[in-house]
Fold:
Amino acid sequence: MRKQRGLSLVEVVVAIVIVGLAAPPLLFQIANGVRQQEAVLIQQNLVQLASERMWEIFTDHANPTRSYDYITAAAYPDETAPRALEGYQRQTEVREVSPADYVSPQAGSGIKRFRITVTGPAQHSLVIESFVTNVPGAKGPD
Structure:
């Protein structure tokens, strides 16, 4: 007679213990990978939203029907869920600044500094700043 071979109860218990010890670290790694992927997606959305607003301002500045005078904070209102992205906010500050330090407010200077702030889920945020000018031949800060 041939002896049939099967798993003993001890072998089954040992296999369950090994799987039980290996599973939590694997699940932790998977969860960590998902969190990292989510952070990358959030960062990409922040960059996209900030870049869109920046190029909107530059396009308005270059547009002869809008130009320098059009660029005001009122022209770029604060947004909640821009492009239907729930959990994101976009704010734009615009002010005329002194050519001496590019920070101090100075009406009529011909230099506008704008700051775009985008916030997203999990306290992620991005701030970009740039300038537009109404002064022919003017250069930004070096």
